From TrEMBL:
Protein name in UniProt: TonB-dependent receptor
InterPro entries, per database record: Beta-barrel_TonB (IPR000531), Beta-barrel_TonB_sf (IPR036942), Plug_dom (IPR012910), Plug_dom_sf (IPR037066), TonB-dep_rcpt-like (IPR039426)
UniProt family annotation: Belongs to the TonB-dependent receptor family.
Subcellular location: Cell outer membrane
Predominant localisation class: membrane
Biological classification of the source: Bacteria, Pseudomonadati, Pseudomonadota, Gammaproteobacteria, Lysobacterales
Signal sequence coordinates: 1-26
Heme keyword on record: no
Tagged with keyword Signal: yes
Protein's organism: Thermomonas fusca
Keywords carried by this UniProt record: Cell outer membrane, Ion transport, Membrane, Receptor, Signal, TonB box, Transmembrane, Transmembrane beta strand, Transport
Length: 627
């Protein structure tokens, strides 16, 4: 992976603002196309084909062309990713990356760590697609760079920002099935040395009646949408209003300043006998200062706060409130010690807080984490090497050291072979430790060891990659029905294979992703060799798009095999396959009319037991975005 310092200064202002925590890296030719540059895999800018990790990038053009109305829908079916949703748009969605737990993936928004310290989850369903410019998905452990939570990988979201000098704007309106209404608009003002911008969006739907069952202790403990039979047989609506603000300024080539903020407010109706609707607020505020006194030296300071607030009701009567926050700071130095040799080192600080207001089970908790890390990246002709080491000191669980090693080699005819091994850990969430009646204060942190072997080749207009991985997780936290609270599973074993390919033939674009997964309880005693819940053994996604002048046409086929919804493998959720279609027409300069159909054949299916997914749905949108 060659280091090209000149590349840094040829990138657009967007790259400076979002994608430059360190010197740019490339493999082979200079990386003049921003879409090829990724930062999440190494905390430094490198090209996607040079990263010694399984990386996928979803840009704004792909988002606009897709049939997705939410972040979970956009990620569904992609390599290594399983989404579990409780009833459609806006409902609780959990993500399992490479068979790891739903809280084993670290989420970042513009470099700021996000997620609820109480539940351990990131509320994906409340992050509006209208605010997203780009998504980087890195599969495989990244604790040696980012600390806790990155057992399965890291997903970083970059919010929208203008690139062109002058004034630029955009707008979109849409309507569809189940009372779907959407509207968004954005405006940017940019000069030679910086710019400011704002985006606003609103999404609302009347929802569907997703509940299929009820709690019955005689047949199934702990499952179902509600307790009293015959209740809550209604449609569950959802609405979300969001805004993002940003500003960046580079007075010269030495200094770069960046600030950004996003906020989403929403209301969600669902089925339950103790809580059946919520008002939510998610907010992320962050900023960075970059100082590059020389071509081979760079120092960057990043500060951020993510807050998550949920007020929950039964009807109009207040039930409880969950308020959490994450404050973070990071100082990172990058030094090019020689041609093709980059050394990075830094310090991370994190403070998690949670406050639960509940008449029956209130609690408050806080803890801090301090870490130092170092990384070496070297290019040796046909060989590349990456070494990383990190030590986290958690206020509650003490010190944890993690490391990673990755090697890549260019072999004959453009083929590239990579191998890697990494360790990771995850501290229990506050709910798992403290929530009265449903917690276990004796829980131990989860720890993992993961190895991966990859083979890839890229050509003119095509790419193919195969990834095989094996992961062992010690002290996996899972619900223990015999205790009525979470417990540590002695060991879990996860192994899998991913195949991805893309090709452009004339005006046709074809992308395919296939996954095979074997995730099992490897501990002795109860549950031995049982499959881990909610992980399908096979998954696939195929996207086909074609341009006909001003017209565009696309299809997305997504399928998943059956899965178990419980640790005892007694509750089965069947497999499914769906087909989505889209048709767009650029009828004037900057104007596009698009029609989407989701679940074209009206397939009835579930991803979580007792919660049916929507059937066939239509949407029509009008987008204005001058080029």
């Amino acid at each position: 992976m060659k280091f090209h310092r000149d590349t840094v200064f040829r990138l657009s202002p967007l790259a400076f603002a979002l994608a430059l925590p360190g010197p740019a890296l490339a493999h082979g030719d200079d990386a003049t196309d921003l879409d090829r540059v990724v930062v999440t895999a190494t905390r430094t800018a490198t090209t996607a084909d040079a990263a010694l990790a399984a990386v996928e990038v979803i840009d704004r053009a792909q988002i606009d062309a897709s049939s997705a109305r939410s972040l979970p829908e956009l990620l569904r079916g992609r390599a290594g990713i399983t989404l579990v949703n409780q009833g459609g748009l806006g409902k609780l969605s959990t993500l399992f990356l490479r068979g790891t737990e739903s809280d084993h993936t670290l989420f970042l928004i513009d470099g700021v760590r996000v997620g609820s310290p109480a539940s351990g989850l990131t509320m994906l369903q409340d992050l509006p697609l209208a605010q997203i410019e780009r998504i980087e998905i890195v599969r495989g452990p990244r604790s040696s760079l980012y600390g806790a939570d990155a057992i399965g990988g890291v997903i970083q979201i970059f919010t929208r920002r203008g690139e062109r000098e002058g004034i630029s704007g955009r707008g979109r309106i849409a309507a569809g099935s189940h009372g779907l209404r959407e509207a968004s608009a954005g405006l940017d003002l940019r000069g030679k040395r910086g710019g400011v911008g704002v985006d606003v969006a609103h999404q609302e739907t009347d929802g569907i009646n997703a509940c299929l069952g009820f709690y019955n202790p005689a047949t199934w403990a702990g499952a179902g949408c509600f307790i009293v039979p015959g209740t809550h047989l209604d449609r569950d609506g959802y609405r979300n209003s969001s805004a993002s603000l940003r500003a960046d300024f580079a007075p010269n080539d030495t200094w770069q300043f960046d600030a950004r903020a996003t906020r989403a407010e929403g209301h969600n109706d669902y089925d339950g006998d103790y809580v059946d609707n919520s008002d939510i607020v998610q907010q992320t505020v962050g900023g960075s200062v970059r100082w590059a006194p020389a071509r081979d030296v760079q120092l960057k300071l990043t500060l951020g706060r993510n807050s998550d607030d949920s007020n929950n009701y039964i009807g109009s009567v207040f039930s409880n409130r969950f308020t959490t926050s994450r404050d973070s700071a990071s100082l990172q130095a990058d030094l090019t010690v020689a041609q093709g040799q980059l050394l990075s080192a830094g310090f991370d600080w994190l403070r998690d807080r949670a406050n639960i207001v509940d008449a029956w089970s209130p609690f408050a908790a806080a803890r801090g984490n301090r870490a130092v890390f170092a990384q070496y990246q070297g290019d040796f002709g046909a060989h590349d090497l990456q070494l990383s080491l990190r030590t986290d000191r958690n206020d509650q669980f003490g010190a944890h050291a993690t490391g990673g090693i990755a090697w890549g080699m260019d072999i004959a005819d453009g083929w590239r072979l990579t191998a890697s091994h990494g360790t990771a850990f995850k501290a229990p969430s506050f709910n798992e430790l403290y929530y009265p009646g449903y917690s276990n204060p004796l829980l131990r942190p989860e720890q993992s060891r993961s190895s991966e072997l990859s083979l890839q080749r890229s050509g003119d207009g095509w790419q193919v990659q195969a990834n095989a991985y094996h992961n062992r997780i010690d002290d996996l936290i899972a619900w223990d029905a015999s205790l009525g609270k979470p417990g540590n599973v002695e060991q879990a074993r996860i192994r899998g294979l991913e195949l991805t390919a893309s090709v452009t033939l004339g005006e046709w674009d074809l992308r395919g992703q296939l996954g095979w997964l074997d995730a099992r309880n490897a501990s002795t005693g109860f549950g031995h060799d049982k499959r881990l819940a909610r992980r399908p053994t096979r998954s696939a996604r195929i996207d086909l798009d074609r341009e006909f002048g001003d017209w565009g046409f696309g299809l997305s086929a997504i399928g998943e095999a059956a899965r178990w919804d419980d640790v005892g493998n007694s509750l089965r959720v069947g497999g499914y396959g769906t087909l989505d279609g889209r048709l767009s027409w650029r009828f004037a300069r900057g104007w596009t009319l698009q029609a989407n159909v989701v679940n074209l054949f009206d397939k009835r299916y579930e991803t979580s037991a007792w919660y049916v997914q929507p059937g066939r749905e239509y949407a029509l949108s009008l987008r204005w975005q001058p080029q």
